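Extended Data, panel c. Modelled sequence:
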Amino acid sequence: MPDWLVFGLLTFLIVAALGVIFVRSLLYAVIIFGTYSLVMSLLWQHFNAPDIAVTEAAVAVGSTVLMVAVVSRIRRERR
């Protein structure tokens, strides 16, 4: 992977982390967190840490699904 692409992905991670903090919608925060985790697992793979990459991807999928379920349940209870 070229250095400029790694730099772009690392910059995206910083922007995504700030986006999760400052976004107002819970669903959007979960979506941003899911993309953050996907990019993080790609970077772990690039840095020759496949065990951490697989763990990051598995935990990200599980936590994202759980958070989407909780957000949808919260929205149903509010109405």
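Residues 50-78 form the longest helix (29 residues). This feature is highlighted in the accompanying rendering.
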